[in-house]
Design a protein that fits this description.
Elements: E1 2-6, E2 9-17, E3 26-32, E4 35-41, H1 54-57, H2 59-64, E5 73-76, E6 79-82, H3 85-103, E7 110-112, H4 120-133, E8 138-140, H5 148-153
Parallel strand pairs: 7-8
Antiparallel strand pairs: 1-2, 2-3, 3-4, 5-6
Length: 154
């Protein structure tokens, strides 16, 4: 991480990987205080060598979007109320169990999006999650309908 001083405080450069697709482009994010000043391709990135696509440039817009959810919420009347992560996970688990009990295990479907191979949580928790759900309804970009769960777990 490099550091310089600006009129708004310390400027820091965070070297990260864009996680929006399989290319895994290296990005350099300049931060002034707690504000993103710029995002550019990281010349030292072994895969992208400084190139980034428009999606990586848009990360700042996503990060700063006023409508972006920053905490879990629950519908309350005509609006939403913030809840804790523990409450959110408990509610999701309960509703998944309830849906499968009422309509059968295949009433729940899973979409296996990208880039799973570069996400440690996906690598560690996807198979136990799929085994717990026991649904045949898995979808991904690689196939049109079923079979993704079985291939993922084999």
């Amino acid at each position: 991480m490099s550091s310089a001083t600006s009129s708004q405080g310390a400027t820091r450069t965070h070297h990260r990987t864009c996680n929006l697709c399989e290319a895994m482009c290296g990005i350099a994010i300049e931060v002034e205080g707690d504000r993103i000043a710029s995002i550019r391709g990281d010349q030292r990135g072994p895969f992208s060598r400084g190139y980034i696509c428009p999606k990586a440039l848009a990360l700042q817009d996503l990060h700063e979007d006023g409508d972006r959810l920053r905490v879990p919420v629950r519908r309350a009347g005509s609006g939403f109320q913030p809840i804790s992560w523990d409450e959110a996970f408990d509610e999701v688990a309960g509703r998944l169990r309830e849906t499968q009990a009422r309509h059968g295990r295949d009433a729940v479907a899973v979409y296996l999006g990208n880039p799973r191979g570069h996400n440690y949580a996906s690598l560690l928790y996807l198979i136990p999650f799929l085994e717990a759900l026991r649904t045949r309804n898995c979808f991904s970009l690689m196939q049109r309908r079923q079979g993704a769960c079985e291939r993922e777990m084999s």
